[in-house]
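re: the backbone from monday

yeah here it is again, tokenized this time
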């Protein structure tokens, strides 16, 4: 019997070729699915918190000089606002009295690394050392070991976030950037912050930005007149009963979930919830 042909190929050859193509496609799809399942999940720091009430946090990154620390403390005290200061360990070494003054005034003094490197460029042991050394220095001056960490430059990786979690610390970013380090006018800083803020926001300022002390009173006065409560980050975030969305927003699992207590406790042992 003469075999059927399709453009010079036997029907049997065509069928085998088609079957092989189907099998190869199936294998590729299965391998892609397996790779997706086995790939490590991207770990995110906390950028903001889902809130029904009008509660926000004001934060300052502190890495270089000390010229604006006292004016900022005076302004915050005038408006009865407690903020979170993320300080570098080397700054604590240089300005221990100012570090203590922050804590004595009731503000949170938290971890911004020991020497302000790009954390993702470090090994796991170097990341851990940057965090633990800064914690050690802060605790030696204030008596309180931080549980909040902000990576320098906002530069993080899953490894950085996981290492902080292993050390029982929450990685904190921001969703409102004042860009005060670029030295915009006080009015520009004020408008930028107030236009971006919403319940659950974390606002970024810098200790050392020359126009921040001039901008801050108007920001605090406006927020308070709009019914906002301004609390340290430890009182804004959830320690349990939450999930994280793709934008780094903490979302409570139920309406009964509550923010953390109003105090950072030395030796805090409750680790952050895995994401």
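seq for it, each position gets an aa:
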């Amino acid at each position: 019997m003469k075999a059927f042909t399709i453009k010079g190929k036997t029907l049997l050859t065509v069928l085998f070729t088609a079957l092989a193509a189907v099998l190869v496609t199936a294998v590729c799809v299965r391998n892609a699915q397996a790779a997706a399942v086995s790939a490590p999940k991207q770990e995110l720091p906390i950028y903001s918190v889902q809130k029904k009430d009008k509660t926000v946090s004001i934060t300052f990154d502190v890495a270089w000089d000390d010229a604006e620390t006292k004016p900022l403390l005076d302004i915050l005290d005038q408006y009865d606002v407690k903020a979170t200061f993320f300080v570098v360990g080397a700054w604590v070494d240089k300005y221990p009295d100012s570090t203590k003054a922050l804590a004595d005034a009731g503000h949170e003094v938290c971890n911004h690394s020991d020497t302000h490197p790009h954390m993702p460029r470090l090994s796991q042991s170097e990341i851990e050392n940057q965090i633990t050394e800064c914690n050690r220095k802060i605790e030696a001056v204030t008596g309180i070991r931080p549980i909040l960490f902000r990576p320098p430059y906002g530069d993080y990786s899953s490894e950085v976030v996981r290492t902080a979690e292993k050390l029982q610390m929450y990685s904190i970013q921001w969703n409102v950037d004042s860009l005060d380090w670029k030295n915009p006018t006080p009015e520009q800083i004020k408008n930028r912050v107030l236009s971006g803020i919403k319940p659950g926001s974390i606002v970024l300022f810098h200790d050392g930005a020359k126009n921040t002390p001039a901008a801050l009173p108007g920001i605090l006065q406006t927020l308070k007149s709009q019914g906002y409560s301004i609390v340290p980050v430890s009182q804004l975030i959830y320690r349990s009963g939450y999930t994280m969305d793709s934008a780094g927003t903490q979302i409570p699992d139920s309406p009964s979930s509550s923010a953390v207590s109003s105090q950072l406790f030395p030796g805090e042992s409750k680790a952050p919830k895995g994401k």
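Residues 22-29, 32-39, 258-275 have pLDDT under 50 and may be disordered. The radius of gyration is 25 Å.
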